[in-house]
Amino acid sequence: MDSIIQTVHDHGERIALLEKSDEKTRLEITSINEKLGTVERSQHKIESTLHDVSRETRSVIRDSQDMTRGLFKSQELVISQLATAFENEAGRQHKETTLNVEVQDKQRDRVWAAFGKWSAIIVPTLGGIATIIGYFYK
């Protein structure tokens, strides 16, 4: 009978140890669950932050694309204006060259006209002087 009592007592001690072990396991599971809850809340915060950052990044990309398009349009406008300016300058230089040639032609015409006028006066005058000198020598 002592052995039965001893066996029951041993079983009681094992049951008590198992209950303590179960309680310890429950506390560990509760601690693990709390830690998992903290990790899940952190994950939600991280997901929210990533979503916000992603939205801001897309906004920055759109803004930079708009600015790039604006720069390209500005460059096209500047190139167009430069091309027009070069064409205008080439046209101005051509007109200036043409005008210079016309001015030189008119100056030559005036010189020849003046020469013609003076020669019209000088030649008959010289002819008259020669005639007068010829009368004196006769």
List the helices and strands and how they pair.
Blueprint: H1 2-137
N- to C-terminal distance: 197 Å
> Structural class, judged by helices and strands?
mainly alpha
Q: Output the helix-strand order.
A: H
Beta content comes to: under 5%
Q: How much is the average pLDDT?
A: 88
Verbal overview:
By secondary structure, the chain is an all-alpha fold. The protein has one helix and no strands. The chain is rod-shaped and about 195 Å long.
Short summary:
The chain is mostly helical and 138 residues long. It contains one helix and no strands. The protein starts with a helix and ends with a helix.
Name a few traits of the molecule.
138 residues; mainly alpha; rod-shaped
